[in-house]
Amino acid sequence: MPYSSWFQCIDPECPERMALTEIVYTCPSCDDLLMVAHDVDALKNRSGAAWMRLFDDRYMTTQFPYGSGVWGKKEWVYPQIDDANIVSTYEGGSNLFQAIRFGEMIGVEDLWIKQSGNSHTGSFKDLGMTVLVSAVQQMIHEGADIRAVICASTGDTSAAVAAYCATAGIPSVVLLPKDKVTTSQLVQPLANNALTLALDTDFDGCMEVVKLLSEDKRFYLANSINPLRIEGQKTISIEIVQQDDWQTPDWVIVPSGNLGNITAIGLGFQMMHELGLINKLPRLVAAQAAAAAPLYDSYKTGFKEYSPVHAHGTQATAIQIGNPVSAPRAIPILQEFDGVVEQATEDELSQAAALADSTGLFACPQTGVALAALMKLAERSVISPEERVVVISTANGLKFPDFKTGYHSETLPEVTAKLANKPVELPGDYHAVAEAITKHAG
Ligand SMILES: *Cc1c(COP(=O)(O)O)cnc(C)c1O
Ligand SMILES: [Zn+2]
Fold first, then answer.
1. Full-prediction pTM beyond 0.70?
2. Is 260 in the pocket of ligand 1 (CB under 6 A)?
3. pLDDT for residue 280 is more than 70
4. Rg of the chain's alpha carbons, rounded to an integer?
5. What is the best residue among 156, 185, 206, 403 to mutate for testing ligand 1's pocket, by most ligand atoms within 8 Å of CB?
6. Which of the listed residues 319, 325, 362 should we mutate to test ligand 1's pocket, taking the one with most ligand atoms within 8 A of CB?
7. Neighbouring C-alpha atoms within 13 Å toward the C-beta of 232
8. Of all helices (H) and strands (E), which one includes residue 135?
């Protein structure tokens, strides 16, 4: 195998490098975050056109593991892993479609939605978790004494950890903030037989505990401080471009909490640019809930200042994060991509999701944040009507039933549900039904 990748410190001055099978989450010399680096010179032995052909040949085939949207790009993700250790549910390959009616309503005609939540566990977290759990499988096969994969979660990471570990037969432990994840998200790790711990704290509190636990190397940490996840999520951008005949959009809008995904999406575009698959970069938008928007605050200072905040309650629970671990990775990416950070209130995110739903979507609250950010940027003409925009839909709306029922029963706090649509209760009687229909559509 001519290709290779390794952990490297994010400080370009620091020489630390480690194998991807080392159990390490921060730089041993300076404690900075780690990134996965690739032997880009080796990857350049294939032309951009040849990479595109290879990726197209593999896309959505049944050939293990290359039919997976992640492993179809194996050389760019984790080239030296043994195929036998790959733990995959054929993640990726999610639909990218043009939201024509919604785009017309908000004056963004060339609007596309990448449905990353149409996935094995219902969120894009699968894309990173297949890489992380495969790496763990490789470590175990090389003799590492790993007893469990552990994570703190706002609900979707734990679902992915539990599912991929169960697929591989590796024990998993998930720490959730009690009463802050949805019922659907809670039953996912339970069903997949994870030890599920509901802690009386918020996500940031769970993160502190799990970090201490991971000092014991038998408990492998699956949070996105671990850059292996970012490698898998990078394939979102490759797939977006591939699905549009290798055209680059003008904008990509990403609901952002811990800032791993926006980092990953930026890295995917960078890599395609460097390897000659595309010749321009899109602009990136990180969309945050106003209740938890430390990156937005930093953006307002031109990224000169940055400080964590206390995250307040929001419907967008998956991004209710006050101290995003990947901020030092994401800020340079946003600067390079001429990025914008926008925020959305509870009313804005709920209204945007409801409006999108009325045109056929079923947006999760995080995607609601991205759609609201899009509407605000279009309104201010930061995004112009003819530009091609891709919104990353990060989870399946079915994971968030309380958000939907709360909206339509007009019980969400801080939200005026202008598009509330309540069930009409009627006797089982033809005339009553006919009358109701005539009133609605007659
Ligand atoms: C994890 C998650 C996010 C945020 O991604 P980060 O990498 O933490 O910024 C957004 N939406 C959903 C549905 C998620 O599960
Ligand atoms: Zn270092």
1. yes
2. yes
3. yes
4. 22
5. 156
6. 319
7. 30
8. helix 125-141
